[in-house]
Amino acid sequence: MTIEDYIPRAPSDPYIAGVSAYPSLVREDVPYQEWFERVSLGSLMSLHEVEGGRVMGGVAMDSHHIRSSGQIERLESEILRLQLELSVSVDRHTADMDRVQGEMASMQTEATQREGEMVQMRRDLASRDAEVARLAAAVRRLEEQLQGMGITPVTGAGPSGLGQTSSSPPRDPVSRDWFFDDPPSS
Questions:
Q1: Residue 87 pLDDT > 90, yes or no?
Q2: Which end of the chain is more exposed for a tag (fewer CB within 10 A), N or C?
Q3: Residue 68 parent element (H or E)
Q4: Residues contacting 145, CB < 8 A, separation 6+
């Protein structure tokens, strides 16, 4: 049985008898359906046409509306909470991106400075290499001049400045071995 089965379609004798007991309920020139919605169970169970069929109205509808309005308020507060959370997340993301971009700019500046320093170091190294080559050529010229005069030049000179002559050095005229000899026995 549906709710519509409980709603009388037209006044009947029992209906008329009930109305005679309550004369204040009688409304002349009011269509039955309108009267029913106003004074009978209409506030409790009036029917409203909506898209897709009928839905219950009146108190039952109000009860449903009250329940759903609690859900609506809960959903609205959830929406507000999510919007706030989204706003905070967007703000954090923006701050993180700004920080990262600042760090990247700083790193780029440092990289540019390091690159400039590397270029300068390469120039300095090339300059030093050229100076070493110039000095090595001067040493070779001097060695050639010494050989031309009959003087034995130092060979194998390296950056440490150590080298050997092409002939053995003269022996030390004073032997140092005497210092380590055993003392004479007494």
A1: yes
A2: C
A3: helix 58-148
A4: none
